[in-house]
Amino acid sequence: MKSYLDCIPCFFEQALRAGRIATDDEHALKQLMDELGKRLHQISLDSTPPETGRLIYRMVREITGNNDPYRELKLQSTQEALVLYPSLKRIIEESDDSLLTAIRIAIAGNVIDFGVSATFDIEIAIKEALESDFAICDYSAFKDKLVEAENILYVGDNAGETVFDRLLIEQMNKPVTYAVRENPVINDATIEDAVQAGIDKVATIVSSGTDAPGAVLNTCSPEFREMLDQSTFIIAKGQGNYEGLSNEDYLMFFLLKAKCQIIANDLGVTKGDIVLKGINTGT
Amino acid sequence: MKSYLDCIPCFFEQALRAGRIATDDEHALKQLMDELGKRLHQISLDSTPPETGRLIYRMVREITGNNDPYRELKLQSTQEALVLYPSLKRIIEESDDSLLTAIRIAIAGNVIDFGVSATFDIEIAIKEALESDFAICDYSAFKDKLVEAENILYVGDNAGETVFDRLLIEQMNKPVTYAVRENPVINDATIEDAVQAGIDKVATIVSSGTDAPGAVLNTCSPEFREMLDQSTFIIAKGQGNYEGLSNEDYLMFFLLKAKCQIIANDLGVTKGDIVLKGINTGT
User: Fold this and answer.
1) ipTM for the assembly
2) Which domains are present in chain B?
């Protein structure tokens, strides 16, 4: 997905939100805003939002000297999600369609996103994801392709959300490779976060090589790109991965909650909607 | 009022909103964002938001070549307000406290502000202003000082809102000088807009000399500053005038609706609250 003009004020909001997690020095925060302003003319609307996110969070690290401002918040998110894990597992197992319920739960986990907002309520998100209609629901294609798939490449998104992904992985009964960010960026999951969520018990964890808050291909490692090329069933979680991968040619399913108006517009849905969207499925 | 870090993303939103009224050329709009970005390091947090507003709308004019993008919207707002005038006049005259009701109506008119949002509902604003409690209500001081005042300096805000101001002016029974912006900026009232609202029938209209969306003193004319110095009863309408004048030493009453979170914080009220705040009243 390209960037839109409306993304620009939001880039400054994101920088300010991340900057404030890293420091309360108002002078440093103004410097962060100014630096982003100076570089704005280099940011093309043809680039994807996570490419700019990568630039922003690099600036946050440089200016504040804090390499991983979200570390504590990430750990806390994972721990809170692990507390919910047994009850969510039970909901999935007791439901009429365990796979679809696991997909809903995985989407609910996508609300754990400090890039979009400073606050969220995971319990409400679970309730909504279990009860809401999908705005886009390519579940039939998802099931068909899943049956054919020998293995799955699952591109993760945020720490904490990883626990919800684990529940879906456990329902799919296929070998899964779970890709995370190479370096900390916002609250996106790294290998450490995925292990804390217990993903290592159900999948092979790999790095995508990127430090962007989304799988922006030209920032990913050749090994990860090779994996994408070889995969016949790819799940990409969350807005950042949608923004990075939605124009690519892979057979892929996006699981997300449309948390921002711009992405909702791009998908043709309403802000707040839940989405299971397949691309290049041949159907 | 100084600027806050949270004003910075909002400056970009304001520029985009105004730019879009002036043009639909995406290239020009990106250029507008880029220019604002480049100049951001020159914008001190010690400056007031309307000083930056002035810079932004100058850039909009320069880049889009449109000197008064809100002209049609302003005329439309005034005409719509004039349609409401007779019924509002009746509400004021039939109320137990006509002066206070006229103040409430004048505050309701403050919702006509394209600088804060692209949409608003004036009928709802009137209902709310008539029924809501004031978050700050220095009405007692307002009445006392009004009795003593020989004349009134009324610093207007937006076109259309001018009609609501006229209703308050008609209730005060004192000679009123009504100050407007020198040049078009957002939908702020100029002399032309004030005349269209019929302010010339109830007050002497003067220019404050500024092209900022608020009475920022160092951008106002010496004549207007002299007027402020000489006045013993000043009414300043709206957020822009509050931002420009709240730290000055004049005896002054601010009438506004707190439409943005930052101003609400500065005033110690909740966003959406209505405010009648006196400063330097000696009480």
Assistant:
1) 0.89
2) 7-64 (1.10.8), 71-279 (3.40.50.10880)
